[in-house]
Amino acid sequence: MAFVVPQGWYSIHYPAIQSEAASHYKFQRPSTPCFLSFTSKFHNFCSGIQFLKAPSRKPILGRGFSRESSLLEVSSAGQLIKDYVQDGNFEDAITIYVKVLEFGLPVSEFRFFPCLIKAFGGLCDAGKAREIHGHVLKLGVLDDVYDVNSLLGVYGKCGAVEDAIQLFEKMRERDLVSWNTMISGLCHWGDYMGSLRMFSRMVNDYWVLPNRVACLSALSSCSSVQCSVHGREIHGFVVKREIATDQFLVSGLIDMYMKCGDVKNAEYVFGSIVYEESIIGNPVIWNVMISGYVANGRLPQAVELFLEMLEIGLSPDTSTMVAVIGLCSQLLDLALGRQIHKFCYSIQLNHDARVETALMDMCFKCGDSKAGLEIFQRSQNRNIVMWGAIISNFAQSNRPHEALNLFHNYVLEYGFVDSVIVLAVLRACSSLAVRPRGMEIHGLVVKMGFDSDVFVGGALVDMYAKCRDMESAQIVFYRLPARDLVSWNALISGYTQNEFPDEALKAILDMQSDGVKPNAVTVASMLSVCAQLSIMKSCKEVHGYLLRQEFESNVLVSNSLITTYAKCGDIKSSWAIFESMPERTEVSWNSILLGLGMHGHADETFGLLEKMEAAGMKPDHATFTALLSACSHAGRVEEGLKYFKRMVEDYKIEPQLEQYTCMVDLLGRAGHLKHAYDIILAMPCTPDDRIWGSLIGSCKIHHDERLAEVVSDRIFELDPTSIGYRTLLANLYEEYGKWSDVTRIRSDIKGRGLKKTPGCSWIEIDSNVHVFMAGDQSHNQLEEIYATVECLTNEIRKAGYIPQSLTVSVRHDEEALSLFRVIEED
């Protein structure tokens, strides 16, 4: 007698299916007889079957259903489920099975469990996958390897890795499909080493010969982890099995070797089969070779292979052109890029969305943002990828305003965002340091549910850090469910840029305690902290760590070392590192130029500029900042004016605030106060408190009281809370004996509640750092220190320098004395 599931069995033994039927699949049990007619197929299946109120097995059988008719209906239902699954109508397929249970039909005769399980997999819901697993387990049909393989595939689609592994390990019987499912599934889930271990286990422990599917998945895993050793083993197996001419395996082998950086073996595989009749006309293999050449920097070979492809009459497809356009982007060859653009027109690929996106990206990379924008505006295929590309390119091209405007238009058009576009627009906010707009994006990120994304979280940390809001940066960082190297670097860089060296050092230690290994960016931040603290010992310790970790060949690290040694007072080490660099960028040259200027080596700085140009490097804003700073430190006014003029006229570089500040400092130090003041008034950019502060410092040096009053008014408009400039102005008034003005400024400071941060300095002697605070008398060698200061003061008096004495009226109390006791700097 056939086993028939009683009416209501599933509600007792498997309530999840009933709840799904009642809620998700909207199943309603009719109270009066009716025909089911969800679709035409289901109507045909159910024709003649009537529902009774509170139906049960007995009345159904009693209405004329024989065992044979029940089996026929089960078979028809199974075929209908199979058809629905093939059409992708997964929910309808599951609804059919729920009806089979509702009718009380003999599910023991159901032969379509693999299709039913596949339907649950189509929902991509791990919870529902576990429900059908439990159901078929209770029915006792999991002894069939086909059913178990279907469940493995479902868990794979749902990303339920542990469930799949547990099910696989409990299988009594495994076939090649079982192994393939696990190997490909682990690769898909990102467990590449697990995929390779499963492949090895299949071959070595169970003597199962892998087929093409297993080999392709294993090769993909080798590519992802750049493991050419295992890749070569698989290659050998493929050759022995005489399947080395399989087009998919050939593509997989070439891709694996290229991604592992083994171009020679990739060329060997390609050359050994490319001219075979079954291979030569396959553009996919040619595309993999061209893309591999581009990825490995073999650009001439990529061009040559592309031309050879055209010569044999093989028509390029979208992937070919995307690879070739990427080649132009790497070469930064706009002329070649335009030729490729015309070629895309000739083969009618210019309207392909992928090709348009690649062309647009190429134009931006080659410096023609106008052409890139035109491609975007003309495109009829604008999708999310293209929007993300243009917003990212504007953000990376130092045009953040355009990036924000495009983002606004995108949101109006689509009404939603993805993580790639969010990352691009956050970069634009970071460039502009616009905290309000960044907070708006942050709110959108939370609404869209991206706040737990580690990449978006890192970008938010960087944005708040650039906006000098480290408190918000910390909150975002510590709320992240997972923190990767990028997010740690964003926090550490933020501490460094905002002059929190102690917090930066602590974060570096915490990062390593968290099991995250520093990279070149982390090391650059570490060196920046050493530069801020000017501690030579720490700088050398970090340098030693870099040598042990083989970071010394990294250009970013070498540039940071040059700057750090210069700021720590060791320009010889900076020069030695610069000289030993196998590759130098514009930043490398600018770093050594700034270091030489900082140490007063003006002539060497000027001479190095000529060598920089001879090396093919183009001076930029940072270059001229270094040159003008060197002129300022050395008091070389004529050279400073000459380089400022060359920057504008010869190099067509529009001066920015940094260069104007250098010029004002240079002229002010030399006593050309009016010229410096006129430059500030005439410059196109808005002056900040630093440039005015430089001028007021020069006014004090050259005793220009009138101009100092004018400049101070400008400073206090920009920064009403500034105490440093108020103190400077008070010292100037004190020199002229204007005690009423001194009292006025002192009262203003007190009325605003401003407090001057005590001065702090330190010096490193014999690997020990000695710290001195203003007014602090806690040093154990205090008497020796002051005796030495007195001795030095006497020596400089003998040399003709008259130290400025601080005379204060007896009307001033002790608070006034502490307020105006400042260390004069020349």
TrEMBL record:
InterPro entries per UniProt: E_motif, PPR_At4g14850-like_plant, PPR_rpt, TPR-like_helical_dom_sf
Gene Ontology terms for molecular function: mRNA binding
Segments annotated as PPR repeats: 144-178, 282-316, 484-518, 585-619, 620-650
Entry annotated with the keyword Repeat: yes
A GO biological-process term: RNA modification
Keyword set, alphabetical order: Repeat
Domain of life: Eukaryota
Keyword Ubl conjugation assigned: no
Listed name of the protein: Pentatricopeptide repeat-containing protein
Source organism (scientific name): Pyrus ussuriensis x Pyrus communis
